[in-house]
Amino acid sequence: MEQSSDRPFTGKRILLGVSGSIAAYKAVELLRALMREGADVSVVMTDAATRFIAPLTFEVLSRHPVATDLFATHQEMLHLTRPEEADVFIIAPATANTLAKLALGLGDDLLSTMVLTASCPLIVAPAMDGGMWDHPTVREHVDQLRSRGMTVLDPVEGPLASGKIGKGRLTDEQTILQAVESCLLPKRDLAGQRMMVSAGPTQEPIDPVRFISNRSSGKMGYAIAQAARERGAEVLLVSGPTTLPVPPGVRCMHVETAEEMAKALTTNFRWSTIVVMAAAVADFRADKPSHLKIKKQAGAWKALALTPTEDILHTLSRQRTRQILVGFAAETDAILAHARKKLTEKDLDLIVANDVTTKDGGFGSDRNAATLITRDGADTPLPLMLKRELADHILDALQPFIKRAALPKPH
Ligand code: CTP
């Protein structure tokens, strides 16, 4: 596909959905900005949107008929063809009603039906008045859409059409353009890298039916594996037991115990250029796991003798030749101090420190808030965000180490 650097969206087709908010007029400027970047944009409007702004405006500017009606015969099958052809689908502005329809999978008009048939990335920019954005139902819908991989851009704070001040204004054009850019022009800055990512918990057997484990879901490690693959790395995921699907293009070794995880990682260590140790390795295993189920009678449970497992990251760091090493520090107190100690003791390049006691972040959640601490002492605190977004921040933070590793070694 033709692409020119001064018009980066040249050759890209964008479907712009406009729903019935007073901010609909801003979609006109957005359309023009997307076209200035070279995109071929066609517009679909809800009935309510046509009350705020005439379809003719979009039609003249986009040079395409504007789709509005699911049942109009001259627009037949547009609900299938337009999304099929699109490289990215933007809904701006998206009302609370549109968010609800998207979350529930309703298809009672052309725009919502197109969302159901689209397989391209979807960017949603909500705009709404009053306290709607903070309403628990709206929050739930937004969370659902995000957990399905849609990009939902937070509205911004400011004066609203009603005269109230609040969070509900359509986000700025630049933010929407950036989101489009990251969908259309994904970074390939990890091409040539071979990354091992460990994820999930380990399970250490006590007997054939019981084990010692932890609350890790594996979501963070899987998100990193997926992001690294999308950015061009070859990725080997070494995963403890989880229910997550392996991201496309990622090679996965499934393991159960810390010992199995250590074996998989040390065997492939020389192959790797980057290791991200996101797994929550159990720190202890049963000293003598029983081959038979331990019965509850006869005081068999008075004590369980434990042995520490191998610290895999420590072992890898002692064997390193040129690998970049990333660790995680899941903490409940003195988070940064504990994380820094681990960074030094395990001789890491970067450690991701996070507080696992928070309600919205940590184990099992789709989100996490973390501080990235690098070997050179720089701390980058990051707010609560999707683990997939955090994954990209972590990979961004590795770039200086990758560049340094690429420099010829001094003689
Ligand atoms: N780790 C490891 N092998 C272990 C334990 C931890 O490789 N047996 C790795 C984790 O994957 C993580 C980092 O070491 O990247 C820190 O793990 P964490 O559980 O936070 O700390 P520990 O070193 O186990 O120390 P503590 O449990 O005392 O906090």
Describe the protein in words.
- The protein contains 14 helices and 19 strands.
- The protein is of the alpha/beta class and 411 residues long.
- It folds into 2 domains: 13-184, Rossmann fold; 194-287 and 302-405, 3-Layer(aba) Sandwich (Rossmann fold).
- The strands form 5 sheets. It has an 8-stranded mixed β-sheet with strand order 12-11-8-13-16-17-18-19, sandwiched between helices. Strands 2-1-3-4-5 form a 5-stranded parallel β-sheet, with helices on both faces.
- Helix 1 (26-36) packs parallel to helix 3 and helix 5 crosses helix 7 (136-147).
- The radius of gyration is 25 Å and the shape is elongated.
- The chain starts with 12 loop residues before the first strand and ends in a 5-residue tail after the last helix.
- It binds cytidine-5'-triphosphate.
- The site of cytidine-5'-triphosphate has 14 residues, from helix 11 and strand 16.
Count the domains: 2
Low-confidence stretches: none
Q: What would you call the shape?
A: elongated
Q: Overall mean pLDDT score?
A: 92
Strand content: 15-25%
| Number of H- or I-type helical stretches | 14
Q: Can you summarize the main beta sheet?
A: 8 strands, mixed
Count the strands?
19
Decide which structural class fits the backbone.
Answer: alpha/beta
Ligand species: cytidine-5'-triphosphate
Rg computed from alpha carbons, rounded to a whole number of angstroms = 25 Å
The rounded distance between the terminal residues' Cα atoms is: 45 Å
**What's the CATH H-level homologous superfamily of the largest domain?**
CoaB-like
- Per CATH, the class of the largest domain reads Alpha Beta
The CATH architecture designation of the largest domain is: 3-Layer(aba) Sandwich
Strand order of the largest sheet: 12-11-8-13-16-17-18-19
Q: Please estimate the helix content.
A: 25-40%
